[in-house]
């Protein structure tokens, strides 16, 4: 295990490239890591969970802190701070769930430096993994949370690792049918935001789909007239804490009926957990409390809690009901 007294990074070289192409080349080196706001990486460096020889600083790259609207699409630069997202008037009008989620992250001081990209790409916060246990995520053969202390672990999609995604904005971008743009040594590629996240059945040691040297540059959110969205986070405290459960919902109304329904959970699965059966319970229905209750029940069908984290089942239901009630009733 890692010694608890370590609180100083191993010496490294900081470089600040002037453009994306140069950053991607530097980041492709095996001994290099990227830093943006630094909220996650600095903790890993100080504890020597990561000991890179080079830290590639992205903060000075041009064009990645902008919010633009064009041709029915919002483009949000990956270096845009969470504080800027929370207060942007266009985002508050067109994608309120994203602003609510950004405003619920940590504290004002952290939101002033933390970035959209950093929040989406942050690493597992599992205490076994973070404290140096040789668990499956760290390359070992056992998930210690499976039959150990697992009150903060997955109730959906767990196994062989039971970590949860710590990102508050991840379920929102998935619910909004967003896409992400990624720049790498071989150029740019785009993929649905939901595909950015990697579950343990695909790869136990990764939480996102970025390859070496690739940089998340922007999130693209389609703007649909009349589209409603909301985000609810349940946490021990109103500030700082990670979610015990969260729900991002997005729906439209057509002739008084719900259409294009999306319900995505956060904090309870290794990836943003889309509730397809709950969406089907809403699709084409009139918005009523009974229909919302049915959708909340359907959201729990695949839950597989352990005794220590079974309390999260009720929190998920609470979050789904509250989020849907806010925007359809």
Which helices and strands appear, and what pairs or packs with what?
Layout (H helix, E strand, L loop, with lengths): L12 E3 L4 H8 L4 E4 L5 H6 L7 E4 L9 E4 L2 E5 L4 H6 L1 H6 L1 H8 L4 H4 L4 H6 L5 H4 L39 H6 L3 E6 L2 E6 L22 E8 L5 E7 L10 E10 L2 E10 L6 E2 L1 H7 L6 H10 L12 H18 L1
Parallel strand pairs: 1-3, 2-3
Antiparallel strand pairs: 4-5, 5-8, 6-7, 6-8, 9-10, 10-11, 11-12
Q: What spatial order of strands do you see in the largest sheet?
A: 4-5-8-6-7
Number of contiguous helices? 12
Number of strands: 12
How many domains? The number is 2
Largest sheet geometry: 5 strands, antiparallel
Secondary-structure-based class equals alpha+beta
Overall residue-averaged pLDDT value: 95
Q: Return the CATH architecture of the largest domain.
A: 2-Layer Sandwich
Quote the beta fraction.
15-25%
What Rg, in angstroms, do the CA atoms define? 20 Å
Provide the helix percentage.
25-40%
The first-level CATH class name of the largest domain: Alpha Beta
**Apparent shape:** globular
Low-confidence runs of at least 5 consecutive residues: none
Oligomer: single chain
Distance between the termini: 51 Å
Fill in the CATH topology of the largest domain: Uridine Diphospho-n-acetylenolpyruvylglucosamine Reductase, domain 3
